[in-house]
Write a structure and sequence with these properties.
Elements: H1 5-8, E1 11-13, H2 19-25, H3 34-64, H4 75-84, H5 87-106, E2 112-117, E3 120-128, E4 131-135, H6 144-157, E5 161-166, H7 176-184, E6 189-192, H8 195-204, E7 214-216, H9 221-233, E8 237-238, E9 246-251, H10 257-268, E10 275-280, H11 283-296, H12 303-310, E11 314-317, H13 321-331, E12 335-339, E13 355-358, H14 364-369, E14 395-403, H15 405-421, H16 425-438
Parallel strand pairs: 1-11, 4-5, 4-7, 5-6, 7-8, 9-10, 9-12, 10-11, 12-13
Antiparallel strand pairs: 2-3, 3-14
Length: 439
């Protein structure tokens, strides 16, 4: 390898690593500071629970260096945002929202009913979650796209009330693009709050912020930890662990090195705790990607942030592409890019990933903004069991059943046998009494 190894570290040959070294190669940066984060977040949550708005103002002054009189965005600020935004940007958000709605509407579930036995009807009815809280990060960069990703499916689901929190800018205002994106999706209540304190406010409520039934949205390790803590407390449900961004690229010898490097950097620039991985069976491709990283990195406005993230990057040489998929499934990335000659042929091998991008001309950035899929995705390996945000994330699925006299007669004996086998006499009696009456 050449001097470009300094950009992303040396290439690791997977088959030459022992089990401990392999585990270390797949360790996320935030996993090494989890204990510190947990205690800091718990203290912030306790402050908000104890002192409400006063604590929110003090914490905002401490971390965002701004003193807020009103926490909620008013009509004048919404109007100022509409006047300030570039019309071309607004139109791009309109178009993105349309594609997001098209994709999410197609996947919506509806009510259904089935007669499972004569006289026994089982149903599923879909109901919107009453009040939901959306978190839109704006720490190092505002993310109006996240307002679209969360606002569109919440509207399609029919949630009665939607609350959105986003960090304030130094002048005490919310980012205008975030406000316009929120309005485009129908969100009317926006609070200028960020970090763990915003999560605590939406979970437990304060004088200004209403408590919500379920919280959504990505964020840094503090936001993710706060979501998990409020969920464990029973205060509010959450969509998923959606923390620092990550991408894993599987590339073959025919991949475009410039494209691959650009995809790695697009995630690295999110934050210093982001992680990017490249798996390939081609040493030549690895070397070409490192050269491209060295060329493209200095051109970025967020080069310093990307450089920190690249320090946690991994370039892994595998003996065969099948090995790369086994590693990817173990890692369970938020974003998985298949920079392969026949990427769809390999899709069957994907068992765990938040979102998959097929081929050379499908950058992860399309999914971030406007392809139509959702960019609020599980991170830190949660893709093994969690899925990205959808309309269903904002809904409850309630089962309903009804049995007539003929129905209880038809399946009562089955219930009796099972209840008696479990030693639950009251269960059995509840069925037996009805069977006698129905006879």
């Amino acid at each position: 390898m050449n001097d470009n190894t300094a950009i992303a570290g040396p290439v690791l040959t997977w088959s030459k690593l022992d089990a401990e070294a392999q585990a270390q190669a797949l360790t996320r940066p935030v996993q090494t500071i989890a204990a510190q984060t947990r205690s800091a977040v718990a203290a912030l949550i306790d402050e908000v629970r104890a002192r409400g708005d006063q604590a929110l103002r003090e914490i905002t002054a401490r971390f965002d260096n701004v003193t807020l009189d009103a926490l909620e965005v008013d009509a004048a600020e919404f109007a100022a945002a509409e006047a300030a935004i570039d019309p071309a940007l607004r139109q791009a958000m309109v178009e993105a929202a349309q594609r997001i709605e098209l994709f999410h509407r197609a996947g919506m579930s509806g009510d259904y009913a089935v007669e499972t036995a004569p006289g026994v009807v089982c149903e599923k009815v879909v109901r919107p979650i009453g009040r939901v809280g959306l978190y839109v990060p704006a720490g190092s960069a505002p993310l109006p796209s996240t307002a679209l990703m969360l606002g569109v499916p919440s509207r399609l689901a029919g949630c009665r009330e939607v609350v959105l929190c986003t960090p304030p800018r130094p002048d005490g205002s919310a980012d205008p693009a975030v406000l316009v994106a929120a309005r485009l999706t129908g969100v009317r209540r926006v609070f200028k709050l960020g970090g763990a304190q915003a999560i605590a406010a939406m979970a437990f409520g304060s004088e200004s912020v209403p408590s919500c039934d379920k919280l959504f949205g990505p964020g840094n390790s503090f936001v993710t930890e706060a979501k998990q803590q409020v969920a464990q407390s029973g205060a509010a449900a959450i969509d998923m662990p959606a923390g620092p961004s990550e991408v894993l690229v599987i590339a073959d010898a025919g991949a475009n090195a410039a494209f691959v490097a650009a995809d790695l950097l697009s995630q690295a620039e999110h934050g210093p705790d982001s992680q990017v991985l490249l798996l390939s069976d081609s040493a030549a491709l690895m070397e070409a990607v490192q050269a491209e990283l060295a060329r493209q990195l200095p051109l970025l406005s967020r080069a310093a942030i990307a450089t920190q993230a690249l320090a946690q990057s991994r370039l892994v040489l595998v003996d065969a592409l099948a090995d790369a998929f086994a590693i990817s499934n173990r890692y369970a990335p938020e974003h998985l890019i298949l920079a392969l000659r026949q990427p769809r042929d390999w899709l069957e091998q994907v068992e765990a990933a938040g979102s998959v991008f097929l081929g050379d001309y499908t950058p992860e950035a399309l999914g971030d903004y406007c392809s139509g899929t959702n960019h609020v995705l599980p991170t830190s390996g949660a893709a093994r069991a969690y899925s990205g945000v959808s309309v269903a994330s904002f809904q409850n699925f309630v089962s309903v059943q009804s049995a007539s006299r003929a129905g209880i007669a038809a399946i009562g004996d089955c219930a009796l046998r099972l209840a008696r086998a479990e030693g639950l006499d009251a269960h059995a009696n509840a069925v037996a009494l009805r069977m006698e009456q129905a006879a």
